[in-house]
Amino acid sequence: MSYSWFSKNGLVHRLISKHLQETTSYVKGVLVDVGCGTRQYETLFKPYVTRYIGLEYPSVFSRHTPYDVAGDALRLPYKTASVDTVLSNQVIEHVPEPWTMVDEMARILKPDGILILSAPHIWGIHNAPEDYYRFTCYGLQFLMERAGLEVLYVHAMAGFWVTAGIRFCYYLTRVVRPVFLLPPLYALVQIGAYVLDHVHLVEGDTWNYIAVAKKPEGATK
Questions:
Q1: What is the pLDDT of residues 103-162, one digit of tens each?
Q2: pTM above 0.90, yes or no
Q3: Which distant-in-sequence residues (6+ apart) come within 8 Å of 26 by Cβ?
Q4: Residues with Cβ within 8 Å of residue 173, at least 6 apart in sequence
Q5: HSE-CB for 153 with a 13 A CA cutoff
Q6: Distance from C-alpha of 59 to C-alpha of 65, rounded to nearest angstrom
């Protein structure tokens, strides 16, 4: 995972890490990372929890992924009210029934447990054909409240300029030759987009949202 301005994903990774870092004050106890991928955020959360568990779907992709538990997000292999924190980063758009996934994550949380969830709003198709949905802040809030969770916040990770800039970097990847020109172009576009986003932030055009929710103390399921 590169944070370099010279990588087409550099700004994406910087922003996701920044917003996830801001959630560390909420995490505790046993954390299950649903759709852990390459466990790129394990080092970020591990100092704040008693145990980090990476869960991944047993697919062709995950054969080379160092997960701890193989499982399906629609049928999580945990007892009700058995974990303290659930993290799911950029996974819910790849699940055919996202409402069921949120219900399952809420189910396994203990009362007062925390769900941290991020999802794309404006982004291109990726990991096709398992790419089903995009989410607004209101959609994420609805799904979490429907599952009986108390939404603490839903934040845009950036605004219009960052969205336009990072999408343009992906476009450049397809059209610019020779390829040695790409890294400086990535840096120019991403730095410019980042600065412009701080001048005029249009959150409704964000590329991604992050949400934090809590399971109420008196929850019975």
A1: 999 999 999 999 999 999 999 999 999 999 999 999 999 999 999 999 999 999 999 999
A2: yes
A3: 85, 114, 116, 152, 212, 214
A4: 8, 182
A5: 9
A6: 10
Q: Are strands 150-156 and 109-120 parallel, antiparallel or unpaired?
A: unpaired
Q: Quick check: 83 and 113 in contact, CB under 8 A?
A: yes
Q: Record the tokens describing residue 165, joined without a space.
A: 């800039």
Least Cα distance to 168 among 151, 190, 200 occurs for 190
One-letter amino acid at 208 equals N
Amino acid of residue 114:
I
Question: 96, 99, 131, 116: which is closest to 26 by C-alpha?
Answer: 116
Q: Would you say 131 and 125 are in contact if contact means Cβ atoms under 8 Å apart?
A: yes
